Structure formats: structure tokens, C-alpha cells
Amino acid sequence: MLLPLQALAHAQLRGAQPAAGAILDIAPAEVVLTFNEPLGTLQARWFAPDGSAEDAEARAEGPRLIVTPPAGLAEGTHALSWRVMSDDGHPVGGTHVFSIGVETGAPEASAAPTPWPAALARGVLTLTLTFGVGGLFWAALPDTHVSGTRVPGAQSLALASIPAAGLMLAAQALDMAGTGAAALVSRVAWGMALESPYGLAAMLAPLAGVNAAGARGLGPMAFLAIGLAALSFAVAGHAARAEPLALMAPLVFVHALALIFWAGTLPGLVVALRAPDAALQMARFSRLAVPMVAVLVLTGAALAWRQVETPAALVGTAYGWVLTGKLALVVLVLVVAARHRFSLAPQLAQGAPTARPAFTRSLRVELVLMVAILALTAGFRLTPPPRAMADLPETRAELHLHGRQTMADRVLIQGRPGQNRLEIVPLGADFQPFTPLEVTLVFSGPVEGLEGIELRTERGADGIWRGGPVYPPPGGPLDVVADILINDFRKEMFGSEVTLLS
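Now predict its structure.
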């Protein structure tokens, strides 16, 4: 119950005062949570040992969240439930636990909301913009068979961006407030959603849809529509808010522009295949599609590399698995597109009787694959990218313990107050590692009056004994005693002192 319940996400908690799991003599004047990036305050709720809860005053100062505790804190274990907004607009929540005087078990805090409604709403808006705005842009191009007409359903989809944007804003309010359906009738929750990057995206999307629906011919409105649609992707989300922002946001804009054009034209191409000049239409599209595909692949590769940073992250993180699935679908789409250009298009130009129906079926397959790609793209909302989960450089407090016949090299990972884990290597008199039956460590703080904290360890396959987490408190030096059971008849205890980093 004393473990901090922190969600892995974009703004990461890096430290806290008082430390997680600490036992304080008196109530703190304030609780300071330090994150890895500047943040916006959403809410802080205080849970007392008796389970009662009340809102707490909180403010953000750069990467720090400063919370003023309620007056008259009782003895026992307290839980601070916090929720902040990351720089990219995604909310992050967790619970920070510490005790005053004595541990009584952490009070139960409310469960964190799931982000899937926000991901679903983002996916719906993506579909309306891609096939609505993109389809109307293709229809507005001169010399296309659908020029001056409408791709079936494109105008309705473009106008559907208005309710879809409202749906995304509502889902963002739910996610940011973390209070369930009550957020939908909360002016504060809606205000927070509007102030987030997704609020700007939700305003740009309907403008794109309305301009696309009202465009007549390839004029300024058509270009403005597709530009606004791409911009709505470039103002919010993982990739758009990564550093360096001056490079990543334009890359997202260009990537979205190419994707909207390519995917949005597919329904129009199915219509164009019914025309007598279908071969000319396909040849013309190929000339436009080749540079668009090149732009899409190059910008997509740059964005993906910035997000995962290492090949291992492709299979070692949830974000990497979503990206791997998306890349596999992209490869399939490229194979289908290559078949169109080098096989079906020449057959259509030669008048082969089977070319037209085969081309139609293949375009529909490509269309289904594009929808799946867009769905996976919306799925990125559910998990932070590996570059956002990178840890700070790890510090290590190292200590060599020496007994009469046994020694130990001990490492306290992190080596600072708060959550730590421990590694220990037992050594014999010959300074060589050996395998005892048990290894237990005891931390105590005589200066601070801290009674012993016992930590049992387990031996790993590499011969290193590991234990934790343990929460050494801030303050003076700690006494560390190693209790090593050598065999059934012998054990040795020896210790030393360690001072943690602040």
C-alpha cells in the first residue's frame, strides 16, 4: 500500500519531498513533486488516513508541482492523488504516499481513468479529416474525372469533422479531469480541455472540414482546407511536441499533408475507374503519388526514429509494438501501390478486360489497409513513446562491507532518499563471489531515531542478490548491516555507514 502508484506517461515524476514511503515527525508545510518537464496543474486531492478526501491547493512552477496540505493533518498514512498535464497535452496521474508519525496503511484513492475514449475520439476525427478533406481536395483537382463533382460521402465526412471535434474535446475533458462522466458537465474540465493542445486541434479540424465542403474548384479554400487538416495533427500529440519542436512539428505537418492526400484520394480513384479515361486518371495519380509517397516515408521514418530512439524499443515497449504493427501495414500498402503502378496500370492502359475489376478490388484492399493504419495511429494515444519514458542518469551509492571471513560489495541504486533498490555480491575471504543460503540487509538511522528497515534479497542468475524497493528517508547517515547465512551452522553480520545523495 505504501508504493507510489505512478502512471507511465509523458511527464514523469522524478522526485518528491517528502519522499515516497517516508515517515515524518510533523506534517510538511508543502509537498513538492518534481517532474522531467514543465507541466500544467489539473488537480490534487488529499486522502487522509481515515479515507476522507478533499481537494488540495496546488500550483505548477516549471517542472514542479507544489501542493499545500490541508490544515490539521492527523497521524497516519496519507495519499496525495495528483493529476497534471504534460507538455504534449496528455494528462498524467499518480498517487504519492507518506506517513506522519506512524504507518497505518495507505487510504484508497480513486482509480485512474483509461485514455481509450480519447484515443477512439481522435481516431474518428482522423477518419473524417482524411477521407473528407482529402477526398474533396482530390475531387477539386483539375483534369480529374470527379472534378466539379463530389466523391461519394466525402462532403458528409468533411462536415462530420464538426461533431467529431466536439467528441474529441469531450473525451479530452474526461481524460484530463479523471472524474468520470461528471467532467462532461464541469465548466472547469471543459476549460482545461480547451487550454490543452488538443483544444487547438479540435478548433482547427472543423475549420478544415467547412472549408473543404465549401470549396469549388482548386482554389484557396481547397488548399486552406487540407492545410488546416494537416495543422490539426501538428499542434498536439507525441511526435508534434517532441524536441526539437521547431523541426518535429513541421515534420508532422508535412507527414499529415501527404497522408491526407494519398489516403483521401482512394475513394475518388474507385469512382474514376468507372470512367472511359480511367487509364489516364490512374497515370496522372501515379505521377502525383510517387513524390507524396516518398515524402510520407521519409517524414514517417524520421518521426518514428525520434519516438523510439533505439531498435530494441520496437519490441520492448507497448508503443513500439503499435508502431511495428503500423509499419507492417505501411509495407503492405506500399506493395499494393507498387502493384498498381507497375502491373495493373499498364494492363489498364492496354485495355485488358480484367484490369478494371482487378484494379477496383485492389484499391479497396488498399483503402481497408489505410483505415487500419489510421486506427493504429490513434492507438498511440494509449501509450507514451519510449523517448518520453527515458530515465534520468542513474546514480549509485556504493559501499564495501567487510567482516571477519566474509565481505560484500553493496550498491544502492539511485542512492538518494525515496524509492531505491539494492544489489549485493557476497565475497569470501579470497575476494571471490560465493553463494550463501540467505542475504538480508538492515537499514537504520540512529541519529534520526529510525528503527531498522529489514530488506530480504534474492539471488539472480548472474549471481547478484537483489532486493527492493526500499525507502531510505532523508536526513543523516544510515547504518547498513548485512546478515549473511553462509550455511546451516554459520552466519556473519557486519555493517558500515552510508550517506545518501540529496
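Residues 271 and 403 are 84 Å apart (CA to CA).
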